[in-house]
Amino acid sequence: MADRDDEIIEETTDVNAVDVDDKENDNDKAADVIVDDMDTSSEGSNTKSDNREKKYEDVCYICHRTESKAGPMVKLPNNICVCTDCMQKTFNKLNDGSISFMMDMPSFDNIKNMYMNKQSVKKREKPDKNSKKDKEEDKGEEKLTLKTLPAPHLIKAALDEHVVGQDKAKKVLSVAVYNHYKRVLSSETDDDGVMIEKSNILMLGPTGCGKTYMVKTLANMLKVPLAITDATALTEAGYIGDDVESVLSKLLAAADNDVEKAEHGIVFIDEIDKIAKKKNTNSRDVSGESVQQGLLKLIEGGDVEVPVGASSKNAMVPLCTVNTSNILFICGGAFPGLDKVIADRVNLKSSMGFGASLNMKAEDDDDILSKVTTQDLREFGMIPEFLGRLPVTCTLSPLDEDKLVRVLTEPKSAIVSQYKKLLRLDEVDLRFDDDALHLIAKKALEKKMGARALRAVLEEYMLDIMYEIPKDDMIGRVTITKDYIEGKGGPHIEMRGNLLEDNSIQ
Predict the structure, then answer these.
(1) Confidence band (pLDDT; 50, 70, 90) for 500?
(2) Crossing angle between the packed helical segments 211-222 and 167-187, to the nearest 10 degrees
(3) What's the number of CA atoms in the CB half-sphere (13 Å) around residue 291?
(4) pLDDT-based confidence at 219, cuts 50/70/90?
(5) Higher confidence at residue 304 or residue 315?
(6) Rounded mean pLDDT, 73-89
(7) Helices (H) and strands (E) in the chain — how many of each?
(8) Helix (H) or strand (E) holding 30
(9) Contact 203, 370 (CB under 8 A)
(10) pLDDT, position 272
(11) 170 and 256 part of one domain
């Protein structure tokens, strides 16, 4: 009996143990269910809160404007939002010392740095020759060397293909550019102690005579980055307008933010005559003499802090250092009124001494700008320090009727050739009578805009033709006549059936 009782007790114990284990498993499962429910509920609450937050715009902590009005917001600690305008004003005041205390924000510097790193700049390095070679080969670029640098006559020949006339200016530019890059490239290989001074260029000529086009042709030929800027946009730092360093920002952008590449580029500053020193003024000359003073360091050569991707320096814009010693600066301008300054000087000189009556008045000389001197430019309003950094001067003459006709037809990308190509795509042959071309040139001369007026005049007469031709597939040839330019009739149109003998479309 005792043994039987013991067996009953053991069985009971085992059953109880099983019950306990089952209860523990059930409790664990219940706990897991509760946890899952809690996670689900928390996710649901987060989603609700997110949806609730999305219903409301971020508001600037300082100016209280919404994001739709103020623009993108800067997220600060403690759920504070500040618009970029207020952030910029704050940085400016901190830099100027207008605020005597530092903001009580632990990550203030991190916020500033976040905006300083928007754009990456390829810093200037001095690797060994082999790695430099490999770099050029990987990019598939042909590096300009002393052996590959074209001679002056080859540079002029390239200019002749794109620019009509201006032979003297082409020679001056060809020699100056050749000497500049010969200086730059030789300094990388030779170290004999002889320093060749930089030869920046000043171009004088009326509007539309080809100054900008010649510079573009040079940059394309040499495959160097080019930045073109307008001097009228430049002002003294701290005033409305672009800082002088903005010209280097454009060059850096043209070089894909490669500092080393930008340091071998060309900067063309157009309308340089607009920053001449103002006469008879008592106000601060922030866009005249001050800009000339600001450009001195850039043109002469030295390390300059350049804003990346912006026209002025501020706390929100990253800076990089660019050395301008090997950058070729070309300044161009029409210099209206300079011809009178030159004429007064020439007439005064010719009116004295024997044979004064035999001298022709300087006002009648169409090429009077070629007689310009440094004294004339100083009289115009250019400061001597600025002129001293532009030792090479070349003058361009105005374009007459015959030269304008050549501009229409001779260059590789002549305006007439462009219109011919456009109509050739419609399988139409476009031709111009010689009399029509001369009349177009005359009308362009009346506008006094040089070659720039040619496209405007030609566009006026080509508008109806470009509009009507796609309507009729039977048109095979259009000839622009003198009568059409004079308004006495329309262009001469020939159908395809009448052109069976002439299948070639020029």
Answers:
(1) low
(2) 40
(3) 29
(4) very high
(5) 304
(6) 81
(7) 19, 12
(8) helix 2-54
(9) no
(10) 92
(11) yes
The identity of residue 161, as a single letter, is: E
Residues 433 and 317 in one domain: no
Residues 6+ apart with CB under 8 A from 489: 481, 483
Res 171: pLDDT: 94
Three-state secondary-structure class, residue 54: helix
Q: What's the pLDDT at 357?
A: 43
Measure CA of the first residue to CA of the last residue in the chain; give whole Å. Answer: 127
Handedness of CA 338, 342, 348, 351 (dihedral sign): negative
Provide the pairing of β-strand 475-480 with 328-333: unpaired
Buried-state track 201-238, b at ≥16 Cβ within 10 A, e below 16: bbbbbbbbbbbbbbbbbbbebbebbbbbbebbebbbee
Residue that the structure tokens 């620019």 belong to: 163
- Banded model confidence at residue 310, pLDDT cuts 50, 70, 90: low
- The Cα–Cα gap between 248 and 229 comes to 10
Which structural domain range is residue 39 located in?
1-49
Q: Give the H/E segment covering residue 388.
A: helix 384-388
- Is 184 domain-assigned? yes
φ/ψ (deg, to 5) at 271 = 55, 45
Burial of 299 (0-12, 13-18, 19+ CB in 10 A): buried
Cα torsion 405, 409, 413, 417: sign: positive
Under DSSP, the state recorded for 191 is -
Looking at the fold, whether 287 and 379 belong to one and the same domain comes out as: yes
